[in-house]
Write a structure and sequence with these properties.
Helices cover 42% and strands 8% of the residues. It is built from four helices and two strands. The N and C termini lie far apart (84 Å). The chain is elongated. The C terminus is likely disordered. It has two domains: 54 residues, no CATH class; 44 residues, no CATH class.
């Protein structure tokens, strides 16, 4: 007995088109493609497919395609909504410099850029030095 192909509608995307979408999903941040959010969603993938190939897919079809490609939905880590990105960046930078001073025992020079892009050098800020 020979297996017969399952009848049904032919795929709207060729295997080459699916590989192209897969490569983009793995290699690009959605913001690089003018999307507003940094994580891929089924709606954004659907919009990407429409932009690239002028093919309309349902959200369910996109989800099935992503599962076939071995991708699964993931939730981002929870973060406080009220956190200030500049304060977080500053705290991370200060901790990095503290560890560098402690581990290396040397002096850290900071190259600071002002709003016009001009650079200036300064010695470590007292807040960065763990010995003071």
């Amino acid at each position: 007995m020979v297996a017969k192909p399952i009848p049904g509608r032919p795929a709207k995307l060729s295997e080459e088109q699916v590989r192209t979408v897969y490569a983009i999903l793995l290699g690009k941040d959605p913001r690089q493609l003018q999307f507003d959010f940094a994580l891929w969603t089924r709606w954004m993938v659907r919009d990407l497919i429409t932009r690239l190939f002028d093919v309309e897919l349902t959200e369910q079809s996109v989800g099935q395609m992503l599962r076939r490609l071995g991708m699964s939905p993931q939730r981002p880590l929870a973060r406080a909504y009220e956190q200030d990105p500049e304060t977080v960046d500053s705290a991370v930078f200060i901790e990095f410099c503290r560890r560098l001073l402690h581990d290396d025992g040397g002096t850290v020079f900071l190259i600071l850029k002002d709003g016009c892009g001009r650079s200036s050098c300064s010695l470590t800020h007292p807040e960065l030095n763990p010995d003071e």
